[in-house]
Design goal:
The complex is a heterodimer of chains A (492) and B (97). Chain A is of the alpha/beta class and 492 residues long. Chain A contains 16 helices and 23 strands. Chain A has 2 domains: 6-237, P-loop containing nucleotide triphosphate hydrolases (Rossmann fold, 3-Layer(aba) Sandwich); 253-490, Rossmann fold (3-Layer(aba) Sandwich), CATH 3.40.50. Helix content of chain B is 29%, strand content 25%. Chain B has one domain: Glutaredoxin (3-Layer(aba) Sandwich), CATH 3.40.30. Chain B has 97 residues and is of the alpha+beta class. The chains are: A alpha/beta (492), B alpha+beta (97).
Chain lengths: 492, 97
Amino acid sequence: MAKHSSQRSEIAKARTGISGLDEITFGGLPAGRPTLVSGGPGSGKTLLGVSFLVNGAQTFSEPGVLLTFEENAEELAQDVRSLGYDLDKLVEQKKLLIDYVHVDRSEIEETGEYDLEGLFVRLEHAIKQIGAKRVMLDTIETLFGGLNDTGILRAELRRLFRWLRDRKITTVVTAERGEQIFTRQGLEEYITDAVISLDHRVHEQISTRRIRVVKYRGSTHGTNEYPFLIDRDGINVLPVTSLLLEHGAPDERISSGLPALDEMLGGQGFYRGSTVLLSGTAGTGKTTLAAHFVDAACRRGEKCLYFLFEESPQQMIRNMRSAGVDIAKWVAKGLLQFHADRPNRHGLETHLLTIHHTVEVFEPDVVVMDPITNLLAVGTTVDVRSMLTRIIDYLKTRSITALFTSLTTSDQSLERTETLISSLMDAWVLVAAELQGRRRNRQLYVLKSRGTPHSDEVRDFHFTSRGIELAPAHGTATSAPKTRRHAARRGK
Amino acid sequence: MPIDKFELRLYVAGQTPKAVRAFANLRKICDEHLAGRYSIEVIDLVDNPALGRGDQILALPTLVRRLPTPIKKIIGDLSNTERVLVGLDLRPRRASA
């Protein structure tokens, strides 16, 4: 009975080779069947189809036919060239065949009965010429603009998809999204095997592309909307990697960089692979604490990736040097790498993909993002939370320990974000400063630390020539004002 | 009035009833209206599938007027003589059309 796995009953699939798409479809498009890809203008449906063909031809030994109904052939070639696909070469190698179907209503007179057998003949001829296993029809609905008899058209399209199925051709059919429906001409009525929807939204001048598998007969599939990017590497879909929360939980502990803080965290610091939130108001030493954490990791010979969303690396290194934490040497040794980016330069998905990509390449042990609250400039609270969930899941699967700093202000939305994201965190350290007499008194406490006993103390700390130092426990510590502790707990 | 020579191509795929009908209709129309100044070439795409691309053939049967220029296409079994004549520019398009 245990063998009754979903994999066994799953249908055969044809990989698209598109990064991430094969993951959310658990293996690719239904092999030997048509898939409808619908989206608005500029949503990337043509690129998706072309990638499917090119990857098929280049990587999976499945030659493909592109039957394009678009008027502008040159446009297609240009779009595709910008992605580095050399269609001409594939055509030359007989791995790809492109047939431009041109229908000009003005030069066609319709009289009496006809069918689209000419299209079938051309397609069959093309398929035979190169032994095609894949076909893309882009965008077949154009025919509705070229021919008057929609009755014949519909009957012939139905026949066409059946014909393709009979020949076991894996087909991508692109279609323009209608008002309330997936395609203007209701193609989803004929193509019921799989439907993928693409979307391109612009929110506050930041564009976000999303992909969703609306339907996939005979297969499980991710049902979320997944962000995707079109960059020089083509289409990149970002799947939520560990939907199942099945990443391991290492027992190993690593230092926070401050022995006194490690002590507060049950004596040994954070768990490796855990996610730590470090929040506080402006000027309380969050970045310095992060620098200590990084410094300790580099001392252990581990690699750190530091994402800066506010300062330049040079500025940050200089500030840390004056605070007594020299991290420049780790950069020189190649253990520490900075990645600075203005949050509002890209949408969240782009940031997410950049982070992915950078982590993938650098393979760090520790990641710092400073400050994550700046990402709110480019997305709603919900979006930021969703993005962080993905980052955290991704980092956890790789046992990368992550430290996120968060700037607390009186701004309601930020507080709410902190509340929302804190639940994603394994540990939460708060720093605060308050005026006591004529000086600002800085304090630090551990609000939560999953899986470790942790101190309830509020510890004072100071900046010294060697960075941050915590005041001795039970020493000068003043108890935190009840109101703040209460407020902090509310956020849990 | 110059007398144009009509060079016509009829695309079909096999001897389907539609194809046979189209050819018969075409012969009749040509004999009545283009006697002595037309040629018909029948292209069967089943035998020559590659030829479908050149004239952008999609629907079958398709009649292509190669000459005189410009190229005209008439699709269907050519059962509506009026429309065939309009399509071949042998009869002016009605004002409403």
